[in-house]
Write a sequence for this structure.
């Protein structure tokens, strides 16, 4: 990776939102930039890889989906989180990428993936999310999945959601109540 | 004031939410003064004991022993802290914007925070704008 791209990323990170938007507009005409940023995703410097992910996420270029899919599997928590959220713009086209990546991601990235699937309103996600819920050890992941299943609106997971009514975590219990209400079921049978 | 120069306090009991906020503060925002408290015990005196008065306080709503509503009330009653911008961080289904606004919050941000949008939100908060994220 050339030093120029690192300097560019640092300028981007240190600029205000307006300056960053101007910078991206100016750079969007440079056909070599996306490939250079793609390379920078692998940097061992946390701010360089995160900055590259941010720039790639915000740039409009034909390979956006492909690069974000790649960023989602870099092993860097922050890069993967940025990529998961950036994939939301692709709607249904991103669903299989998000679902395929889900099992091997860290819980924090899994939470972002679930929230994006909820935002996309993907019905394809219902069954995979049910499977994920059955084995989710993180309370934050459990309540995020329960919330998403409530929003997605398919009645299939009602009994599974109900099985978390007495979860040791109070956040989870609250999301169970809200999800069952959304799905038209009271908390108690 | 640039985002890098703000003093930001975050009260959060969820380790995952703390983790993404810490990474974002360090690698994306380059905030030099970012302080995290993992619970709300003696929260006002702990904030007052910091070297610098915070510019912004992020409060998780369901933190214990004092929840976000109780904490914002204590902060608003403190003569040194009452003018600080206080933002609720919530997963959105539990509290309504009206409840938060009436309780004295200056805004609400969904958690875990979004590294893609947090800089812009902080810039607006610093400029005095109220932020109420809806998704």
């Amino acid at each position: 990776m050339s030093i120029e791209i690192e300097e560019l990323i640092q300028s981007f990170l240190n600029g205000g939102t307006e300056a960053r938007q101007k910078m991206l507009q100016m750079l969007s005409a440079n056909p070599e930039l996306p490939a250079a940023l793609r390379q920078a995703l692998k940097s061992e410097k946390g701010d360089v890889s995160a900055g590259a992910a941010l720039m790639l996420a915000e740039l409009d270029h034909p390979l956006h989906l492909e690069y974000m899919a790649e960023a989602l599997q870099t092993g860097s928590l922050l890069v993967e989180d940025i990529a998961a959220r950036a994939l939301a713009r692709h709607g249904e086209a991103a669903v299989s990428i998000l679902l395929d990546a889900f099992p091997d991601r860290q819980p924090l990235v899994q939470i972002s993936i679930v929230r994006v699937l909820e935002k996309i309103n993907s019905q394809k996600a219902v069954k995979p999310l049910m499977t994920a819920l059955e084995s989710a050890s993180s309370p934050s992941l459990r309540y995020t999945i329960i919330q998403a299943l409530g929003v997605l609106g398919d009645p299939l997971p009602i009994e599974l959601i109900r099985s978390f009514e007495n979860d040791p975590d109070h956040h989870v219990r609250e999301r169970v109540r809200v999800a069952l209400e959304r799905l038209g079921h009271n908390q108690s049978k | 004031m640039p985002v890098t120069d703000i003093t930001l306090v975050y009260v959060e009991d969820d380790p995952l939410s703390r983790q993404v906020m810490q990474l974002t503060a360090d690698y994306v925002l380059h905030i030099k003064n970012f302080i995290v408290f993992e619970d709300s015990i003696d929260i006002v005196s702990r904030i007052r004991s910091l070297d610098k008065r915070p510019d912004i306080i992020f409060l998780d709503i369901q933190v214990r022993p004092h929840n976000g509503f109780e904490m914002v009330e204590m902060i608003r009653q403190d003569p040194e802290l009452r003018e600080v911008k206080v933002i609720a961080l919530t997963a959105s289904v539990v509290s309504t914007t009206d409840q938060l606004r009436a309780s004295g919050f200056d805004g609400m941000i969904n958690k875990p925070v979004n590294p893609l949008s947090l800089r812009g939100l902080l810039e607006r908060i610093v400029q005095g704008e109220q932020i109420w994220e809806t998704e």
